[in-house]
Amino acid sequence: MSAMERAAEVAAKLALLRGCLESTGAGAICLRGIDWFAWATAGGSSAVLHTAELGVAEVLVTRDEAVILTDEIEAARLREEEVPAGFTFHVTPWAQVELRERYVLGVAGEGPVLSDRPHGLEQPLPNALRQRRLVLTPSEQARYRLLGREAAEAMTEVLRAARPEWTEYELAAAGAAALWKRSIHPALVLAAGERRLPLYRHPTPSQAPLGARAMLVFCARRHGLYANLTRCVAFGGAGPALQEQRALMEVEATGLSTVVPGKSLSAVYHAFAAAYHHADRQGAIDEHHQGGITGYLAREIVATASTATPLEEGMAFAFNPSFAGLKIEDTFLLGPQGLDNLTLDPQWPAVTVHGRQRPLWLETT
User: Fold this and answer.
1) Cα(234)–Cα(255) distance, rounded to whole angstroms?
2) Options 3.30.70.120, 3.30.70.240, 3.40.1390.10, 3.90.230.10; CATH of 138-364
3) Domain 3-134: which CATH number of 3.40.350.10, 3.40.50.720, 1.10.3720.10, 3.40.630.10
4) What DSSP state is assigned to residue 338?
5) What angle, 0 to 180 degrees and rounded to 10, lies between the N-to-C axes of helices 241-256 and 265-278?
6) Tell me, what's the pLDDT at 240?
7) How are beta strands 225-235 and 362-364 bridged, if at all?
8) Is 4 helix (H, G, I), strand (E, B) or coil?
9) What is the mean predicted confidence (pLDDT) over 73-78?
10) 3-state DSSP call for residue 86?
11) CB 230 within 8 A of CB 328
C-alpha cells in the first residue's frame, strides 16, 4: 500500500470518527485496543505483548485533532515505523500515566469521552460505529488478500514438512516460524496429533507425538487483520476420515450458503444447526462455536442463535464447523459475487463442494 493510499484510508476513518462525535455530542474518542489502533492507523501496530488486548499507545480523536498517546519508551519507534501521516503525538513519562488521562479529559472539554475500552465515566462506542468497522475498505481488503494467501502458503509449507515423530510443540513451532518468516504475527497456533485430536476442540500443543495424523490451526495477524485457517495431515493415508470430512463439508456448505447481504449472523447459526441435524450430529453445534465475523479480531462477533448483526458486502468471515477429531476453517470475504476464500492455497489438495474449493486431508508418507 502506498503512502497516498494509506493517507486516504486514515482520512476516511478520521472523518467517520468525527461524524460519530457530531452525532453523539461527545468531546473525544479514545481508542485503546490493539484492534482499534490498527483500524484507525490503517494497519499500524501498538502491540508489544502479543497476548494483550491493550497496546502501548492509544488513538485520541477530537473535532480538530488526531493524536497518538504514548510514553517516552515507544514514541520514536511508533512515529518512525507504525503511524502514518495525519497524527500528532502526545508523549508522557512512562511512570506518570495519570498525565495521559488528564490530557484526554482536557481536550474533551465538557463533552463525554467515548472509548472501545471505557474507563470511569467514559461511554462505550456506539453500535453504528462498531458495525462500520466490520465493513472493510478496498485498501483493507487488498491487505487481507495478501495476508490470507501468505498464511495459507505457510500452512502448506509446514504440513508438507511435518513428520509423525514430531511433537505437537514442534509442529506449532514450525507453524509460528513460517508465519514470522512472512512478517505475520502468530496470534494463535493450535496443534494436535492422533491421540489428542479427537479429544479437544481447542488443542493447545503438548509434548505428545503427532502419530498417524495431525491438525494445525492459525490465527495469523498482520496490519491488525486476522487470517484464520485449519488444515489436517494424514501420514500414510486418511482412510475412513475422508468420509467424515465430506460429511463435515456438507455441513459447512449449508452454513456458507446463508452468508449473503441482508441476512443476519443468527441466520447462519440456524443454518449450521439444521445441517448438523441433517447429518445426525445434533450435539456438535454445542461442542464448539461455529465462528463468525472476523477482521481486526480473530472473531469480531461469534454467530449465535440470537446474533442479529446484519451481513454486508465487505465483511470477512471465518466459520469453523467441526466433528470430534475434525474441523474445517478458512477466511472468506463477502463481495459482489459472494464469498471469496482468502486463505485458499492452490497447492493444497482440494475438492469442489457446491461450487467452492474446500481443503482435503493432506495425505503424505
Assistant:
1) 26
2) 3.90.230.10
3) 3.40.350.10
4) E
5) 150
6) 84
7) parallel
8) helix
9) 98
10) coil
11) yes
Res. 24 pLDDT band, cuts 50 70 90: very high
Residue closest to 107 by CA, chosen among 70, 62, 151: 62
How many Å from the N-terminal Cα to the C-terminal Cα in the chain? 41
**Residue found by looking up cell 504440513 in the block:** 159
Mean pLDDT, to the nearest integer, of 161-186? 98
**Between helices 127-134 and 3-24, what is the axis angle to 10°?**
160
pTM: 0.96
How many Cβ atoms are within 10 Å of 246's Cβ, its own excluded?
Answer: 13
State CA 110 to chain mean position distance: 36
The set of cell numbers assigned to 59 is 488513538
Confidence of residue 226 (pLDDT cuts 50, 70, 90): very high
Q: What grid cell was written down for 69?
A: 498517546
